[in-house]
């Protein structure tokens, strides 16, 4: 919102004039690249929501599991919308590249943090201990019990 307010104050949101070819082409390429990058994050949030809805018995609180997918999806959508506005108000190729890179870094910040935590935490040792001491508790974990797929309904 602050970016939009600042753009309105400085009269930078001008949709009546056609931009120069160089900045217009740069805006188009930046928007396409951002869309490709953001699509994966949005689909990941939707998959998390679908999994939580279809496998509710695997969670102590399935609503919170579903809400985490919704929050990831909406956060990425808002970052994309803000990035579209920043790309639209950029008048210079260098400014566009700088702002675009900064906002994409913000959008990928959650992935960077999860990679850093998994690198320094001994998750492999913890998961090996869980699997070794499970005594058959996870036998049905990968069994598909509920699905919304149309292909699965064809089999009966």
Major sheet size, sense and barrel closure: none
Structural class determined from secondary elements: mainly alpha
Oligomer: single chain
Count of DSSP strands: 0
The helicity comes to: over 70%
- How large is the share of residues in beta strands? under 5%
The succession of helices and strands, N to C, reads HHHHHHH
Topology readout:
Layout lengths: L1 H8 L11 H34 L7 H28 L3 H15 L1 H12 L2 H10 L17 H5 L2
Helix pairs in contact: 2-3, 2-4, 3-4
Describe the structure.
There is one protein chain. This protein is an all-alpha fold. The protein has a domain of 108 residues. It is 72% helix and 0% strand. It has seven helices and no strands. The chain is elongated, with a radius of gyration of 22 Å. The chain starts with a helix and ends with a helix. The mean pLDDT is 76.
């Amino acid at each position: 919102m602050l970016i939009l307010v600042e753009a309105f104050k400085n009269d930078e949101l001008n949709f009546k004039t056609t931009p120069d070819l160089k900045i217009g082409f740069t805006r188009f390429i930046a928007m396409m690249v951002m869309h490709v990058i953001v699509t994966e994050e949005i689909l990941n949030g939707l998959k998390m929501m679908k999994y939580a809805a279809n496998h509710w018995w695997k969670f102590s609180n399935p609503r919170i599991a579903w809400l985490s997918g919704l929050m990831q999806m909406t956060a990425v959508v808002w970052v994309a919308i803000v990035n579209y506005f920043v790309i639209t108000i950029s008048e210079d190729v260098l400014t566009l590249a700088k702002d675009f890179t900064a906002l994409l870094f913000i959008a990928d910040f959650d992935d960077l943090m999860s990679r850093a935590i998994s690198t320094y935490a001994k998750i492999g040792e913890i998961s090996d201990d869980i699997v070794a001491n499970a005594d058959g508790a996870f036998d049905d974990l990968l069994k598909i019990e509920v699905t919304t797929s149309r292909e699965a309904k064809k089999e009966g």
